[in-house]
Amino acid sequence: MSTRYKDHPNFQSRHEAFFADQPMSGEQNVCGCILTILMHVIVFLTLPLSCWFCVKVVQEYERAVIFRLGRLVPGGARGPGIFFIVPCIDSYRKVDLRVVSFDVPPQEILSKDSVTVAVDAVIYFRISNATISITNIEDSSRSTKLLAQTTLRNILGTKTLSEILSDREAVSMLMQSTLDEATEPWGVKVERVEMKDVRLPVQLQRAMAAEAEATREAKAKIIAAEGEEKASRSLAEAASVVAQSPAAIQLRFLQTLNSISAEKNHTIIFPFPIELVKNFLSSTSVKQHAS
Predict the structure, then answer these.
(1) Which domain covers residue 229, as residue numbers?
(2) How many domains does the chain have?
(3) What's the pLDDT at 210?
(4) Closest Cα to residue 107, out of 175, 23, 209?
């Protein structure tokens, strides 16, 4: 067994407690010793044929938990590489230490603000201690999957819909820490939790779409009003600049006529200068006073 598993904080205490809670009687101890000696003699007498039954191999990502006469063999899990067992009295179980992923089926969840949503997630976990995962629980993988479903419902039930949609990372981290704490006595380490999809009822989707559309229209109207305000201020500033020079008005008038003539229009509206109207009105009023 590698050093990192022997040094696991829970390994030594649980390993010793396992043997302390199951003391062997004197008769069982004598029978076990007799069977062990007998099998060793048989293995020795049948060499090298017995090597096919004694020598086992586990891969780099595997560990073997050995039981002798139903009791855990001291020394912890074996591997990776070659290890030896005694036929008939030893049995072993291989444990895969690689990261395993599984999809949590969609869970119908009632959020804190009384909205029913369907949420599914993906869980990544691995066996951190092979011995504990075999001796403390029957099926660590299945138990972790069932616990993940329950944890997903319990945690999301305390969140509002907006928190579920906007704070997915925080919810995932909370789920990971909760699962990791619960599965530590099983020798399981939860590496990552990710929420895949949040499905809302059709009526709620329509209401949210209408709300989003109304929000976008309101923002568009505000932007258009701000543009009109800025354009009006610019026009007022331009008018004040042009009013300071009568020649600028004439130049702008001629420029407008040039632009109109370039477009080859059939009808041209020729504006009458306001200054001529003022002069005509002033001369008419003088003549009336003179008469």
Answers:
(1) 206-244
(2) 4
(3) 74
(4) 175
